[in-house]
Design brief:
Elements lengths: L2 E4 L4 E4 L10 E3 L7 E7 L3 E6 L8 E7 L8 E13 L4 E8 L5
Antiparallel strand pairs: 1-2, 3-4, 3-6, 4-5, 5-8, 6-7, 7-8
């Protein structure tokens, strides 16, 4: 399970599994523009780049599409743990935690 620790000036995040920098297409009717790209994935969650800011706490039904035939596409629920806009790069970022039943 993800453990989130928030400090005053910066976020410190403790993960229970290794994070991998990998780009995967994500689809959901609940995402701005109905799509996103992952920036990294771990066993307990993922970071995505979206076309608009997501609402913290919202649970999304995500469809993940892999480019490798040995990895089947799948659908899973994930909760938005944080969301921010990076004005310097004009992008919206969010960290999502997979719901327990999808670990």
């Amino acid at each position: 399970m993800l453990k989130w620790i928030f400090k005053k000036k910066e976020e410190a995040i403790t993960r229970d599994s290794e994070r991998f920098d990998v780009i995967v297409r994500v689809k959901s009717r609940q995402l701005p523009g109905y799509r996103a790209l992952t920036l990294d994935i771990s066993g307990s969650g993922l970071q995505i780049e979206t076309e608009g800011l997501l609402e913290k706490g919202k649970i999304l039904e995500l469809e993940m599409e892999f480019d490798r035939p040995e990895l089947p596409d799948f659908t899973c629920p994930a909760q938005v743990m944080w969301a921010k806009t990076d004005d310097s790069r004009r992008q919206h970022l969010a960290g999502l935690a997979f719901q327990p039943e999808t670990h």
